[in-house]
Amino acid sequence: MKVRELKKILEQHGYSFHRTGKGDHEIWINQDGHKITLGDSAGGKEVGIGIANKILKIIGAKRK
After folding, report:
1. Which pTM value belongs to this model?
2. If you average pLDDT over residues 15-32, what whole number do you get?
3. Which of 24, 33, 45, 52 is the most exposed place for a label (fewest CB within 10 A)?
4. Domain with 34 in it: what CATH number?
């Protein structure tokens, strides 16, 4: 899964970009204050399958 796709899913589940973190990481936050850290903000890179699945599980999304 590409970072760009994961960002779209985060937005669909109520998360929005909060700030940049260390290096190339981004912090995304929802209305409840729950934070997700997403690495490699370039957007075209692939997210590891384990990390993608863990983030999707945390936010309650299904993998396509």
Report:
1. 0.86
2. 93
3. 33
4. 3.30.920.30
